Amino acid sequence: MMIDPVMKKAAIDLACEITNKCGDVMHGVSHLESVLNYSNMIVKSYPEADLDILEISVWWHDVGRLYLDRGHALKSMEMAIESLTKIGFDASDVEKISIAIESHSNSSEKKPSTIEGIILKDADKLDFLTSLRWQIGMDNDRTKEIEIGIDKIPLILTDILILPESKEIYAELFTNLVNYLKKSDNPFINKYKPTIAKRWQVNI
Questions:
Q1: Phi, psi of 103 (to 5 degrees)
Q2: Angle between helix 29-43 and helix 164-183 axes, rounded to 10 deg
Q3: Residue (of 15, 3, 10, 37) closest to 133 by Cα position
Q4: What is residue 133's three-state secondary structure?
Q5: What DSSP state is assigned to residue 111?
Q6: What gap in Å lies between CA 131 and CA 116, rounded to an integer?
Q7: pLDDT of 17-66, one tens digit each?
């Protein structure tokens, strides 16, 4: 059964409002839009997935960053349960959304157990390879996030992504990102190019 469109819009609007309050440029609305884009690409191969559950999970998966970074998945799940219940979501839908959110982070002890959760986790990690995310990091001197990205990107393919469709998207994104960084003359990223070349085994 489809989720009522009015409730769905209310849920998405509230998630965006909370996300904007977080003030985290690396996990703002542009990140959520990117994750939704990759989720929509992946889900085409999985007709059994509930599109409403997946979309709402995407919008709510990082709201816990309003309070903390490590462990934000659990906090996001708790916030989603409370807010979506108040909006009037069916309890079974709230449970499906919470399961997907809780398991999206690598730091979470939970592994995704539903197709919506698996897609969310994969799509979330694919955003690490978008040029927009890297541009935001460079523009805001986000040293920690850039360094995490440099170390994590090779592992995303080998150790993190689950679905074959996600790995295909990764291959294209990786090529595009390398070309983007190669052309960049940003002083902030230039100092990292030797490290990137060595860690990713690319000519940059």
A1: -105, 10
A2: 140
A3: 37
A4: helix
A5: P
A6: 25
A7: 999 999 899 999 999 999 999 999 999 999 999 999 999 999 999 999 99
| pTM of the predicted structure, to 2 decimals | 0.94
Two structure tokens written together for 71: 């462990």
Q: Extract long-range pairs of 11-16: CB within 8 Å, 24+ residues apart.
A: 11/56, 11/59, 11/60, 11/83, 11/84, 11/87, 11/89, 12/55, 12/56, 12/59, 14/83, 14/87, 15/56, 15/59, 15/60, 15/63, 16/59
CATH number for position 27: 1.10.3210.10
Q: Left (φ > 0), alpha (ψ -120 to 50) or beta: where does 121 sit?
A: alpha
Q: Return the number of other C-beta atoms located less than 10 Å from residue 135's C-beta.
A: 14
Domain, as residue range, for 92: 5-200
For residues 59 and 35, the answer to whether their CB atoms sit within 8 Å is: no
- Counted domains in the chain: 1
The amino acid present at 176, given as its one-letter code, is N
Tokens of 115: 């197709």
